[in-house]
Write a structure and sequence with these properties.
Chain lengths: 143, 258
């Protein structure tokens, strides 16, 4: 009787461990796919920046570390970047989607402009999960 | 949702403060909750006109980040004696404060822009103001451009002085258009008779031709305003004066602009 009980328990344990390993196997491909998608999105953003750099010429995108985004800087920006920068100023903190809704331009275009502004030092970018948020870092400039 | 209005001009002495103060008072008369802010930090005047010598906090302090906006606002609704609510935020008129704000750098101006933009949430959304009216410095001053960037509507006060006309044209093209701002023109100190309808239409056409911008109102040169010497809020004291009627019409138009 004891032997039967013991063998039953061990079969049950085996079944449980098989189920959990199946779950793990099931989850892993999902995680891998998520990771691939994340990396593709990052790659896409970089390519969009490169395309924009080619379109507008490198003179528009000189990196300046932590450049203050004041109104005179906004005035001197090319029109396409000013529109994006102004919208970030107004919204405070926004994703490329939020900006695209306001400017009525494509999300990919806004994503490219936002990343250009990050490279130029006017905006900061912060990732939270799958979303990238852009904002003007006024705190760093706190004197 | 309330609106932010910046009152600006190319040259000084065009009547920005006169218009800002009387437009604010008219909107209050119409039952609105209004906050008038003196952003002319280089030549503050509202504190003198309203006879408020000591404010608990000035707008300079708010932009410096040393106090909250609630501490800056002064309720002058009693002076208005009607249904609306009238608040003001004043610029510090002392020479030391003017010198201090003139020496601010780009980083400070960037933070100041952030604080002006934050007023949309703190005053329009949270406190339920219908209007914030910014009285600005003339020309391309940092504080004025910060006000323009933060505003929904820019009212440009201009005269027929040639240098003012040319400067205003340039600003329309190189400032307000670049920031995609809704702009309305107010012609002030106009010398001709203003009662004739044809003359008014002629002016509308002339303004459209010169500026390619809509005309919000025409204010003739009134000696009564000069005689008042800025001692009181004109539209509150002279209810039947033509200037008060014109301001009523300007306020109604402002209210109808989406």
């Amino acid at each position: 009787m004891l032997l039967v009980y013991h063998s039953c328990t061990s079969v049950k344990q085996q079944e449980e461990s098989a189920v959990s390993s199946q779950e793990a196997l099931g989850k892993k491909p999902l995680q891998i796919l998520e990771k691939i998608r994340e990396n593709l999105e990052k790659l896409n953003e970089k390519m969009e920046v490169m395309i924009e750099l080619q379109k507008h010429g490198k003179k528009d995108v000189q990196p300046i570390p932590e450049a203050p985004l004041d109104v005179m800087t906004l005035l001197s920006m090319p029109d396409h970047l000013r529109k994006t920068a102004m919208t970030v100023c107004r919204l405070g903190r926004a994703t490329a989607d939020d900006i695209a809704q306001q400017t009525r331009r494509a999300r990919a275009v806004e994503s490219a402009y936002l990343n250009q502004l990050v490279i130029m030092g006017y905006l900061k970018k912060e990732r939270k999960g799958r979303k990238a948020y852009f904002y003007v870092d006024r705190e760093t400039h706190e004197g | 949702m309330g609106k932010i209005i910046a009152v600006h001009s190319y040259k000084g002495g065009t009547g920005k403060t006169l218009l800002s103060l009387n437009l604010a008072a008219t909107l209050v008369k119409h039952g609105k909750k209004v906050c008038l802010m003196d952003l002319d930090f280089r030549a503050p005047s509202l504190s003198t006109i309203l006879k408020i010598e000591n404010a608990p906090c000035w707008l300079n302090d708010y932009l410096n980040g040393s106090c909250e906006i609630d501490k800056v606002l002064i309720d002058i609704s009693e002076k208005a004696s009607n249904n609306g609510k009238f608040f003001v935020g004043l610029a510090n008129p002392t020479t030391e404060a003017i010198r201090d704000i003139s020496a601010k750098d780009r980083k400070w101006e960037m933070r100041a822009l952030g604080r002006l933009l934050a007023l949309r949430n703190s005053l329009l959304n949270d406190k339920g103001f219908n209007y914030l009216i910014f009285d600005t410095s003339p020309g391309l001053q940092y504080s004025s451009i910060n006000a323009i960037v933060s505003a929904d509507l820019v009212i440009v006060v201009t005269t027929f002085d040639r240098s003012d006309v040319n400067g205003t044209k340039r600003m329309l093209r190189e400032l307000y258009d670049l920031f995609e701002k809704k702009t309305e023109i107010v012609l002030n100190k106009v010398l001709n008779e203003f009662s004739s309808k044809s003359w008014n239409e002629e002016l509308q056409a002339k303004v459209k031709d010169i500026y390619n911008a809509p005309l919000l109102g025409v204010i003739p040169c009134f000696c009564d305003i000069s005689k008042a010497e800025g001692n009181f809020i004109f539209v509150q004291e002279k209810l039947e004066h033509p200037f008060t009627k014109i301001l009523d019409s300007i306020a109604n138009k402002v209210d109808s602009i989406a």
